[in-house]
Amino acid sequence: MTEHRQKRIVLGLTGGIAAFKACELARRLQQQGVAVQAVMTEAATRFVGAATMQALTGRPVFTDLWDPSIENGMAHIDLSRGADMIVIAPATADFLGKLAHGLADDLLSTLCLARECPLVVAPAMNRQMWENPATQRNVALLRADGVTVLGPDSGSQACGESGMGRMLEADTLADELLGLFEPKWLAGLHVVVTAGPTFEKIDAVRGITNRSSGRMGYAIARIARDFGARVTLVSGPTGLEPPPGIAVESVRSAADMLSAVEKHVANCHIFVGVAAVADYTPLNPQDQKMKKDARILSVELAPTVDILANVASRADPPFCIGFAAESENLDEYAEAKRRRKHLPLLAANLAQDAIGSEESELVLFDDSGRHPLPRAPKLEQARRLMEHAARLYAATNGQRGATP
Ligand code: CTP
After folding, report:
1. Same domain, yes or no: 236 and 164
2. What's the pLDDT at 17?
3. Helix, strand, coil shares, percent, the chain, to 5
4. Does residue 404 belong to any structural domain of this protein?
5. Is 159 a catalytic residue?
6. Are 238 and 213 in contact (CB under 8 A)?
7. Low-confidence residues of the chain: pLDDT under 70
8. pLDDT at 4
9. Could you say which of 180, 207, 242 is where a domain stops?
10. Domain residues for 97?
11. Residue nearest to atom 29 of ligand 1 (CA)
């Protein structure tokens, strides 16, 4: 069980077309074990029925400050008491204005004002409304007051225009909200993560790569960010959308990855080598497309630099975490790899089991031995791995990093 499982969120809907996405958001949060209490403004009920939110959350939905069914007439106090977070999604320009100026003329704005917990808003509006200096001023005020603003995103809008102002998608919002609940074990630390495959050029259109999806590296980068770290993700070519709030450096070849890592690693505290870096690269890549003929073709390959071993052998190395994808003799090969590369922590899995899969089974190796992590989705494995890493890091680096 992870921490956010028993959390309570008050989900406030205001009157925008993006209210339909709040239905999916409520469902996703519930699926993650979060209790969701929906509160809607009168305008929100014109876009989504209160009955819909009630059915999705399994709880009565409140819309009215004067609701006679609330026993002591104190809904604005009762609803936010005991909540771990109030999330306004969608948050209209009008509602952001109200929040920024402390207005309280309906149930939702009143309970935002009477709260003790963090407040998160997911703006949703037309491009011009978002860009209007008044809205920008209100958003800046909210940020200065410690309100978390998630999004908006850019893209096509309900009004037919295209631009900034779309509410974040429900799955992205759910991930971001759950991330806010994670303990900040890596606050103040810089974490560099490599992810994905590399692509080694043979000629203008061909190359050598592998089947790594990058999912594990991206999950680790996200969890490190959620644990409070500043994260740099050095990524080979993947089809993945990087999580917001992470500095991403996109690279292609093993040599590119090495130079990107060298640029960032000098002032990092934790380095996680998750990338499936090519061990060999064509010696003489051709600039033009090679033409075929009837002869057997050999491509001469030269070994690449081992990026992880390189980082771990620096004079003052960061805390280095390696990955080992083995096809057999997992324990023996993984522990030998950990010792050879001088790593305090290594996560190993069976290549045939993990590559391209949504889930993985990991075994962690450190100086105290072997720690198996049972099969789980990659994000959960990333959380367990980084929790273990934070503990080891705190033990070896004194007060830097908090102890899980
Ligand atoms: N790694 C790296 N640079 C390389 C090769 C590997 O940084 N040129 C890192 C990977 O990111 C991973 C670890 O080293 O964290 C182990 O990678 P793996 O491919 O399992 O092992 P290799 O060292 O390449 O050994 P082998 O292929 O013989 O198993």
Report:
1. no
2. 95
3. 35, 25, 40
4. no
5. yes
6. yes
7. 1-5, 68, 70-76, 354-356, 398-404
8. 45
9. 180
10. 8-180
11. 326
